[in-house]
Amino acid sequence: MDRLPVKVKTLASGDAETAARWDGFVHACPQATFFHLSAWQGIIRDVFRHRTFFLYAERAGEIVAVLPLAEVKSRLFGHALTSLPFCVYGGIAADAECEADAAAALETEADALARRLGVQHLEYRNLEPRHHDWPRQELYVTFRKAILPEVEDNMLAIPRKQRAMVRKGIKNGLVGHVDGDVDRFFALYADNVLRHGTPALPKKFFRRLKESFGSACEVLTVADAAGKPLSSVLSFYFRDEVLPYYAGDDLAARDLAANDFKYWDLMRRACERGCKVFDYGRSKIGTGPWSFKKNWGFEPQPLSYEYRLYKRGDVPQNNPMNPKYRAFIALWKRLPVGVANAIGPHIVRNLG
């Protein structure tokens, strides 16, 4: 007997009932990630003012596949339809075997939408490849590793040199605190990204993340024995995973091993919370963060960022590794932090 056909629909703003069904599907679907949750629709629309198109496929009244998309239109960085800006993972979430027709229907609708909008390219930020013949971005990898059931076993699983750095942080009397707001985090984050020559995301974005995701969005700040904040990380919790996502450090953090202690303290807390996977997140190949994560014993896993090109001949390179941004980065590093925080959100909203 043939199955009923799928119908592709768009999640409407304010449709709480459908959003709840969408999130129920995401939590149950093995291919889905934290970044497929419906709350990203309002965050991207309200904070960054980008048009969103959260597509879903329905069969017999049940959601069987989802594809969150947003349009980013910029004179500086081009015109794109992406799943999903400001997120490291995206693309279609569906049962790979049972819902191939639903996934195909979503991709057909996304292609038609991209053509109607007149974008230069359509981007899927997949964990796993879907279209081996599409152009892809080879710059990024992710780092994921199992969290062992016992706290001490996780400590012993850290390679010796990196474990010594964690123990140095412990000996320095560092203490981790879970913050109820993003204030200490943002101060460290904004100063950190300025030193690296990149614009900071707006503080209201981080506030919105806390408001939207509640206990699934947590800020952990490490301070010295006197209470001075040294290092902070904003993490997401999804199913049995923890995802440290945004971070910042004071200049004094390096000598005190505060950054090393911070991630250990997060891993320890995640273990005690019952998490089974530590997702260290995306890094650019060959960079400092890439090396740091490898030092923890994590192995890089290539990300399958796939592109459908319409009005351009190659994959966009809107990232700090692009040589054409070197002068901008050098200039940005010299800005006062207050000026950078005021200007930065207007630039970074178009990067995604």
UniProtKB/TrEMBL annotation:
The record's Pfam families line, in alphabetical order, gives: Acetyltransf_6
Q: Which SUPFAM superfamilies match?
A: Acyl-CoA N-acyltransferases (Nat) (SSF55729)
Question: Does the keyword Transferase belong to this entry?
Answer: yes
Spell out the PROSITE patterns in the cross-references.
FEMABX
Q: Which key words are in the record?
A: Acyltransferase, Cell shape, Cell wall biogenesis/degradation, Peptidoglycan synthesis, Transferase
Outline the extent of the BioF2-like acetyltransferase domain. 161-283
Q: Which NCBIfam families match?
A: pepcterm_femAB
Similarity comment: family membership: Belongs to the FemABX family.
Descriptive protein name: FemAB family XrtA/PEP-CTERM system-associated protein
Instruction: State the species of origin.
Output: Thauera sinica
